[in-house]
Specification:
- The complex is a heterodimer.
- Chain A has helices at 3-25, 29-58, 65-104, 114-142, 156-184, 187-203, 210-231, 236-254.
- Chain A is mostly helical.
- In chain A, helix 2 (29-58) runs antiparallel to helix 3 (65-104), helix 2 crosses helix 4 (114-142) and helix 4 (114-142) runs antiparallel to helix 5 (156-184).
- Chain A is globular and about 65 Å long.
- Chain B is mainly alpha-helical.
- Classes of the chains: A mainly alpha, B mainly alpha.
- At the A-B interface, helix 2, helix 3, helix 4 and helix 6 of A face helix 1, helix 4, helix 5, helix 15 and helix 16 of B.
- Chain B: This is Presenilin.
- Chain B: The chain crosses the membrane at residues 94-112, 145-166, 173-195, 207-227, 234-250, 256-275, 395-416, 423-440.
- Chain B: Residues 1-77 are annotated as: Disordered.
C-alpha cells in the first residue's frame, strides 16, 4: 500500500495523458491555453449538472433508496448531456477564435488548425474529467487503510485507475470525432458520440462487476480510437508508410543523402 | 542579426526599414492617454524586427517588410501586425504568467497539506479585530463584514499614503519601507516556515546551520529583489515571498472573514485601478509622467528587467506607453501580523529600450514582458490555499479553484491585449474562484461521468 499504490495508480491513470501533454501540448502556448479553457468548460458543465442533481435530490424523498438510485442515474445522464453540450459550445468558441486568428494573421491561416484544437480540447476534457474522478481516491491511497474491508472489491484503486485512463482516451477521441462531425454537419456522428458517452457512463453503474464494465468500456475505447484515427485523416496506408519510412530514411542516410536540409543555417 | 540582414537584402527598400525604425525610436514623451497610439506604431516596427531576431516566424516578418513599402499600406500593415503581434505575444505572455502563478499555488497547497501549523488557529491579526467565535450565524456574518471593513480601510489608507509619498517624491521613505518589509519576509517568515517544516518532518537542525542557511537565503534575496540579479532567481524569490505572505494570511484570517475580504479586495482593486481618481491609477499616471519604473520589488516581471535600469537616452525619451504597475502597501509587521497587501494591476510593458539599430549589444531576444503585481499572486494563493485547507470536497475543490483562477488570468490578459492599459488582475479570477469554490464545495461531489 501507500506510495507504491499511489504512484502505480497515478501512472496508470495519467501516464498517457501526461505523455500526450508533454509531447504535443506543452511546447505551444496556444495549445496550453486551449487545454486550460477546455478544462474550464468541462467544470462549468459539471457545476450545472451537480446543481440539477442537488435540486432534484433535495426535492425528493430521502428514504426511498430506489428513487435515490434512479436520481443518481438521472444525474449521470444529465451530466453526460451537459458535457456534450458544453463540448459543442467550446467548438463554437474555438471556431470563432480560429476565424479571428486567421483574419489577423498575415498569411490568412491561423497558427493552429481546427483538428489540432479538436484534439487538444478532447484531451483537456479527458484530463479534467479523469482528475475529478480519481484524485481523491489517489490521495486516499497514500494513507493507511485496507481496501474493501467491508466487503467491497479489493481492486477498487486499480480499476478506478484503469477507468480513468479509458476516460482520458475516450474524451480525446470523442473530441476529435465531435468537432469533425460538427464541421461537416454529420449529425449522426454526433448522435453516436453522445450515445457512446451515455453507454460508457451507464456501464460504470455495473461497477463492482468489473468484467462487465471495464471490458466493454475498453472495447469502446478501441473502436472510438480507430474511428477518431480515420476521422483525423489517418489510414492503414499511412500507418504502413510510417512504419516503412523509418527503414527507408535510415537507408537513404547511410547512402549519403544530398537532399537540402529543411533548416537552412542562414536566416532562420 | 543574420536574419535582420537577410530580410534587408530580400526587400526592395532596405533603407526605408532602417530609417523608419530609427525615427520611430524617439517619439516625444507621451502622456498617459495619447501615449498609447504614438509609440505603438513605432513599437510595431521594433517588434517586427525583434521578432525576426528571435526567429519566431521569419516568413511573416519577410512578408511584413515587403508589404511595408508604401505608406498607407504600411499603416494598415502595422495595425494588422500590431494585432497579430498582440495575439501571438498574448498567448506566450499568458503562459509566462501561468507558470509562476501555478508554482506559487503549488507551494502554498503543498505546505497547507503537509505542515499542520498553517491550518491551526492561533489568534488573529490586529487588522481583523472581531472574533468569529460567536454562536449565532448572523453575529458571525456581521463580525466578518466588520473585519473586512477594517482590513480594506487599512489597505486604502496605506495605498493613499503610498501615493502621496510617491507624488511628493519621498523616495527614500518608500524604499526604506519596502526594504524593511522584504527583510521581514525574507528573514523572519522564512525562519518560521523553515522551523515548521522541520518540525513536521521531525528533522533536527542546529542553530549555526540554520543561521547560515537563513542568512544566505535572505541576503541573496534582498540583493536579487532590490538590486540586480539573474532574472529567474529574482522571479523565484518573488514567488517564494508571495507564497509566504499567502500562508500567513491563510493562517491568521478567520474563516468567513477571509472569503469576504477576498471579495471586497477584488472590488477595491477594480475601483482603484479603473476609476479616474483611484489611487493606483494616479500612481500609474505619475510614474508615467516621470518616466520611471515603479518599485521593482513588488512586481513580478516575466521579461528582462535589467534593461529598464540601464540608462539610455532613447529609453528616457520614449516613455513607455503602457505602464507597469503595481502598488503595495505594507505596514509595520508585528510578530503575529504581516501586513502586506498589494493591489495589483496587470500590464504589458513595452520593451523599454531602444532597439537593435543603435546598439548591437542589445539582446536579440528582447521580448515584451508582462508584469503582475505580487498582491495578485498572494490573493490567488490565499484562495486556493483556503480551498485546500477547508474544503470538504478536498482536491476537487482545490483543482476547480485553480482552473478558475487560471482562466480568469487568461481573460484578464485578453482584455489587456484589447484595451492596452493597466488593468486589475484580481476581479475576474477571484470571482470565478469564489463561484467555483462555493459551488464545488456545497453541491457535493458528482464524480460520475
Amino acid at each position: 500500500m501507500g506510495a507504491a499504490v499511489f504512484f502505480g495508480c497515478a501512472g496508470i491513470a495519467f501516464g498517457p495523458a501526461l505523455a500526450l501533454v508533454l509531447l504535443t501540448v506543452a511546447a505551444e502556448p496556444l495549445r496550453v491555453i486551449i487545454l486550460v479553457a477546455g478544462a474550464f468548460f468541462w467544470l462549468v458543465s459539471l457545476l450545472l449538472a451537480s446543481l440539477v442533481w442537488f435540486v432534484s435530490v433535495r426535492l425528493s424523498d430521502r428514504e426511498d433508496a430506489r428513487l435515490q438510485f434512479g436520481l443518481l442515474v438521472f444525474g449521470a445522464a444529465v451530466s453526460v448531456l451537459l458535457q456534450e453540450l458544453f463540448r459543442f459550445a467550446y467548438f463554437k468558441l474555438l471556431k470563432k477564435a480560429d476565424e479571428g486568428l486567421a483574419m489577423i494573421s498575415e498569411d490568412g491561416r491561423s497558427p493552429i488548425s481546427l483538428r489540432q484544437m479538436a484534439y487538444v480540447s478532447g484531451l483537456s476534457f479527458g484530463i479534467i474529467s479523469g482528475v475529478f474522478s480519481v484524485i481523491n481516491i489517489l490521495a486516499d491511497s497514500m494513507g493507511p487503510g485496507v481496501v474493501g474491508i467491508h466487503g467491497d472489491s479489493p481492486y477498487y484503486f486499480l480499476t478506478s485507475a484503469f477507468l480513468t485512463m479509458a476516460l482520458v482516451f475516450l474524451h480525446t477521441f470523442w473530441g476529435v470525432i465531435f468537432f469533425d462531425a460538427c464541421e461537416k454537419r454529420r449529425y449522426w456522428c454526433l448522435g453516436l458520440v453522445v450515445a457512446s458517452h451515455l453507454v460508457t457512463s451507464g456501464l460504470t453503474f455495473l461497477n463492482p462487476w468489473y468484467e462487465a464494465s471495464l471490458v466493454p468500456i475498453y472495447i469502446i475505447v478501441v473502436c472510438m480510437g480507430a474511428w477518431a484515427f480515420f476521422t483525423a485523416g489517418g489510414s492503414i496506408h499511412n500507418v504502413l508508410k510510417c512504419l516503412s519510412c523509418k527503414g527507408a530514411r535510415g537507408r537513404e542516410r547511410t547512402r549519403g543523402d544530398t537532399r537540402v536540409p529543411r533548416l537552412s543555417p542562414v536566416g532562420f | 542579426m543574420i536574419t535582420f540582414t537577410n530580410n534587408s537584402d530580400s526587400e526592395e527598400e532596405p533603407c526605408n526599414e532602417r530609417t523608419s525604425l530609427m525615427s520611430a525610436e524617439s517619439p516625444p514623451v507621451p502622456s498617459y492617454q495619447d501615449g498609447l497610439q504614438a509609440p505603438e506604431a513605432g513599437e510595431a516596427q521594433t517588434h517586427r524586427k525583434r521578432r525576426t531576431g528571435s526567429g519566431r516566424s521569419p516568413s511573416s516578418a519577410a512578408n511584413g517588410s515587403t508589404s511595408g513599402s508604401s505608406l498607407p499600406v504600411r499603416e494598415s500593415a502595422l495595425e494588422n501586425e500590431e494585432e497579430e503581434l498582440t495575439l501571438k505575444y498574448g498567448a506566450k505572455h499568458v503562459i509566462m504568467l501561468f507558470v509562476p502563478v501555478t508554482l506559487c499555488m503549488i507551494v502554498v497547497v503543498a505546505t497547507i497539506k503537509s505542515v499542520r501549523f498553517y491550518t491551526e488557529k492561533n489568534g488573529q491579526l490586529i487588522y481583523t479585530p472581531f472574533s468569529e467565535d460567536t454562536p449565532s450565524v448572523g453575529q458571525r456574518l456581521l463580525n466578518s463584514v466588520l473585519n473586512t471593513i477594517v482590513m480594506i480601510s487599512v489597505i486604502v489608507v496605506m495605498t493613499v499614503f503610498l501615493v502621496l509619498l510617491y507624488k511628493y517624491r519621498c523616495y527614500k521613505f518608500i524604499h526604506g519601507w519596502l526594504i524593511l518589509s522584504s527583510l521581514m519576509l525574507l528573514f523572519l517568515f522564512t525562519y518560521i516556515y523553515l522551523g515548521e517544516v522541520l518540525k513536521t518532518y521531525n528533522v533536527a537542525m542546529d542553530y549555526p546551520t540554520l543561521i547560515l542557511i537563513i542568512w544566505n537565503f535572505g541576503a541573496v534575496g534582498m540583493i536579487c529583489i532590490h538590486w540586480k540579479g539573474p532574472l529567474q532567481l529574482q522571479q523565484a524569490y518573488l514567488i517564494m515571498i508571495s507564497a509566504l505572505m499567502a500562508l500567513v494570511f491563510i493562517k491568521y484570517l478567520p474563516e468567513w472573514s477571509a472569503w469576504v475580504i477576498l471579495g471586497a479586495i477584488s472590488i477595491y482593486d477594480l475601483m482603484a485601478v479603473l476609476c479616474p481618481k483611484g489611487p493606483l491609477r494616479m500612481l500609474v499616471e505619475t510614474a508615467q509622467e516621470r518616466n520611471e519604473p515603479i518599485f521593482p520589488a513588488l512586481i513580478y516581471s516575466s521579461a528582462m528587467m535589467w534593461t529598464v535600469g540601464m540608462a539610455k537616452p532613447d529609453a528616457a525619451a520614449r516613455g513607455p506607453s503602457q505602464q507597469m504597475w503595481d502598488t503595495a502597501e505594507d505596514g509595520r509587521v508585528n510578530h503575529r501580523s504581516p501586513l502586506h497587501s498589494n493591489s495589483e494591476i496587470l500590464e504589458t510593458r513595452t520593451p523599454g529600450t531602444s532597439h537593435p539599430v543603435t546598439s548591437l549589444e542589445e539582446l536579440e531576444e528582447e521580448e515584451r514582458g508582462v508584469k503582475l503585481g505580487l498582491g495578485d499572486f498572494i490573493f490567488y494563493s490565499v484562495l486556493v490555499g483556503k480551498a485546500a485547507a477547508t474544503a470538504s470536497g478536498d482536491w476537487n475543490t482545490t483543482l476547480a479553484c485553480f482552473v478558475a483562477i487560471l482562466i480568469g488570468l487568461c481573460l484578464t490578459l485578453l482584455l489587456l491585449a484589447v484595451f492596452k492599459k493597466a488593468l486589475p488582475a484580481l476581479p475576474i479570477s477571484i470571482t470565478f474562484g469564489l463561484v467555483f469554490y462555493f459551488s464545488t464545495d456545497n453541491l457535493g461531489p458528482l464524480e460520475i461521468m
